[in-house]
Amino acid sequence: MTHTALNILIADDDEGDRKHVIRALKEAGVSFKYTETASVEEALKECDKGAFDCAIVDYRMPGHDGLHGVGALHDRLPCMCIIMATGQGDEFIATEAMKLGASDYIAKKRINAETIAHIIESAMEKAALRNKVAEQREELENFALVLVHDLKAPTRSMLGFVRRIERCNARGEPEKVAEYCRLVFEAAQRMDALIDSLRLYTRTDNPVAFGSVEMLQVMKDTLSNLEESIGARGAHVTYGELPAVLGNAPQLTQLLQNLIANGMKYCEAEIPAIHVAAEPQDGNVWLFTVKDNGIGISEEFYDRAFDAFRRLPGSSNHEGTGLGLATCKKIVKRHGGVIRCASAQGQGTTFFFTLPGACVHQ
C-alpha cells in the first residue's frame, strides 16, 4: 500500500456501515483521509469539489441503487478507483458494477482490517491498469487520426503538383515545372517533419539511462541544434546560470528544444525573445522557466496545451502537429517532475517545469 495518505470517499446511507469501513481502515494501518456521504447525489457533489483516490460505494442507497452510483461516479471521475460494497454476495451485481466502472467488489460482511487494505490496493492497481489502457487506446486513436488527416494533406498536395508538372511539361512550360517541383519538395519536407514528430513523441516511452546532466551543456546543444532556425527568425535566446540535474541528456535537450522552438513558432513580434532560467527548490529540486514573448495562451487552455495532437485556438496560422508540448510533458513526467504554464493572450507564455537535482554521490 502506498505511503501517501489516500483520499477516500465513502458513500453509504447507513452510518453504522460507514463507521465500520473507517474502523477497518484504521485497524489495517491504512494512511487515509475520508469524506462520508449518505447518497449518490452527495457523493457526486463531493467529486465536484475535488478528486478522490478511491470510493467505497454501497449497493443500495435512497433514490438510486449503487450501480447507478458507480456509473455516475465513474463518469464524474474516470480515474478514481471504485469499490462496490453490498450485503448481498451476488455475482451478477459484481459483473454489472465492473461494466459500469467499478474496479472491485466486496460483501459488507467481509470488510475487516485484514481484507480492506488488500481490496483497496488490488482495486487501485486494476484502476491504474484500466486507466493506462484507456490512455493508450486514446493515443492510438489520435495517432491514427493524425496519420489519416495530417499525412494525407501533404500527400494530396504532392499528387496535385505532380499532375500539374505533367501538364506543364507536355505544354513545354519549364518555369512552371520548376515552380511545382519546388512546391512538391516543400510538401515532402512537411511530411518528413510530421513523421519525425511522431517518432520523437513515441520514442519518449522507451527506457533510457539517467545520470548527472549539466543543463548548461544541454542548453548549448539545444542552441546548436536550433542555430539555423534562430538565425532565420532573428530570435534572441538568453539563459541564466543552469545547474546539474539527474536525468537523460538527449531527452532534456529535446525538452528545451521543443520549448524554445515553440516560443519562436508562436511569436508574431519582429524579434522573438526567449529566456531560460532555473532556481533551487526544497528537496533537491530545480524549478526551470522558459519565458517567451509569443502570442500567449488563454488560461482556460493551460491544461489542454499539453494534450497530444491538440491544436489550440489562435494556432491555426502556425504550422504544427500538436505534439511538441505533449512530448515535453512526457519527458518531464519521466524525470519525476511536473510542467505547467502561465500566460495571457497576446502577452507571451512562461513554461515552468521541475527536475531532480543531481545526486551529490554518484
Account of the 3D structure:
This protein is an alpha/beta fold. It folds into 3 domains: 6-131, Response regulator (Rossmann fold), CATH 3.40.50; 150-203; 211-356, Heat Shock Protein 90 (2-Layer Sandwich). It is 49% helix and 20% strand. The chain contains 11 helices and 14 strands. It has helices at 15-27, 40-49, 66-76, 91-100, 113-149, 152-171, 174-203, 215-225, 227-233, 249-265, 324-334; strands at 6-11, 32-37, 54-58, 60-61, 64-65, 81-86, 104-107, 211-214, 236-239, 244-247, 273-281, 285-292, 339-343, 349-356. The strands form 4 sheets. A 5-stranded parallel β-sheet has the order 2-1-3-6-7, sandwiched between helices. The radius of gyration is 27 Å and the shape is elongated.
Topology record:
Elements lengths: L5 E6 L3 H13 L4 E6 L2 H10 L4 E5 L1 E2 L2 E2 H11 L4 E6 L4 H10 L3 E4 L5 H37 L2 H20 L2 H30 L7 E4 H11 L1 H7 L2 E4 L4 E4 L1 H17 L7 E9 L3 E8 L31 H11 L4 E5 L5 E8 L6
Parallel strand pairs: 1-2, 1-3, 3-6, 6-7, 9-11
Antiparallel strand pairs: 4-5, 8-10, 11-12, 12-14, 13-14
Helix pairs in contact: 1-5, 2-3, 3-4, 6-7, 8-10, 10-11
